[in-house]
Write a structure and sequence with these properties.
about 240 residues, alpha/beta, Rossmann fold, 6-stranded parallel sheet, two-stranded antiparallel ribbon, 8 strands, about 45% helix, about 15% strand, HAD-SF_hydro_IA, phosphatase activity
C-alpha cells in the first residue's frame, strides 16, 4: 500500500450527517414562495413526479446527473415566478429545505489535522445542486477552506461511480502535483457502490467509512473505518507522522 499523497472526500454521510433528505419539501417551498399565484399544487406536483421523476430515475441506469437548476428553470417557464429572486437564492433555499444535515463531531478536527499534514484534500460529491449553490451549503459549516477544490455531479451531468467523474478530480490533482499516482490518492466515502467500488475501479485507494457497521458488503476487504477520526490512524500506518492539535 502506497503512502497517501492526496485525499478526496465524499460529502453526505461522510463529512456531513444527512439526517433527512426530502425532495418534496423543496417542491413545496417552490409552490408556496416562488411559483406564480394560482399555480395548482396538485397539478404541479404531478408534473414534477412524472416528467422529472423519469429523468431522475434514469440516473441509476447510466450514472448521469440531472441538475435541479434545470428543473427549476423548466418550472419557471411553465408556471412563472411571482418573485424576482436570484436563481441561486431560490436553489439554495430549496437545498436547505430538502437537506437536514449536521456536522459529524470529528469532521472539523480531522480536516484540521490533514491541513497540518499538508496533504491536498478535495471534495467530490453526488448532488443535484451545482457548485455555486453547494459552496454556500457547505459554508454553513465553514468547510470550503479545507479543500483545494470541490466538485459536484450536477456541474458535469455525471455522477459516481462513473469513471469520468473521478477523472475530473484526478486531473486537478495532477495539476497540483504531476508526480502523484492514482493509488496514492485515498477516496473516503460511505456508499459502498458509488464511493468504494467507484474509486477502486478508477484506480484510487478506497477507504470505506462504515458507521453502520455493516459486515456483509465489504467482501473485497477494503480499508474500513467506523469514524472519520480513524482515518488518521490509517495515514499514520502508512508512515505519515500525524501531529497533535
Amino acid at each position: 500500500m502506497k503512502k497517501v499523497k492526496a485525499i478526496i472526500f465524499d460529502l453526505f454521510d461522510t463529512l456531513l450527517h444527512d439526517i433527512k433528505f426530502d425532495f418534496d419539501s423543496g417542491l413545496s417551498y417552490l409552490h408556496e414562495n416562488i411559483l406564480s399565484e394560482g399555480t395548482d399544487k396538485a397539478e404541479f406536483i404531478e408534473y414534477a413526479a412524472t416528467y422529472w421523476k423519469d429523468l431522475y430515475d434514469k440516473r441509476n441506469e447510466d450514472n448521469s446527473e440531472i441538475a435541479f437548476e434545470d428543473e427549476v428553470l423548466d418550472f419557471k417557464n411553465k408556471y412563472g415566478f411571482k418573485v424576482n429572486y436570484p436563481l441561486e437564492e431560490v436553489l439554495f433555499n430549496c437545498a436547505l429545505e430538502m437537506n437536514a444535515t449536521e456536522l459529524f463531531n470529528d469532521t472539523v478536527s480531522t480536516l484540521e489535522q490533514l491541513k497540518l499534514l499538508d496533504i491536498p484534500v478535495y471534495l467530490l460529491s453526488n448532488s443535484i445542486f451545482k457548485k455555486n449553490v453547494m459552496k454556500k451549503f457547505i459554508n454553513q459549516f465553514d468547510l470550503e477552506k479545507y479543500f483545494v477544490n470541490i466538485y459536484f455531479s450536477a456541474d458535469y451531468n455525471i455522477r459516481k461511480p462513473h469513471k469520468d467523474f473521478f477523472k475530473i478530480v484526478f486531473d486537478d490533482i495532477k495539476m497540483y502535483d504531476a508526480s502523484i499516482e492514482m493509488e496514492e490518492v485515498y477516496f473516503i466515502g460511505d456508499n459502498f457502490e458509488a464511493d468504494v467500488l467507484g474509486a477502486y475501479n478508477f484506480g484510487f485507494m478506497p477507504v470505506f467509512i462504515n458507521r453502520k457497521k455493516d459486515t456483509v458488503i465489504n467482501n473485497k476487504n477494503f480499508i474500513v473505518i467506523k469514524a472519520l477520526e480513524e482515518l488518521l490512524e490509517v495515514i499514520q500506518g502508512d508512515g505519515v507522522n500525524v501531529p497533535s492539535i
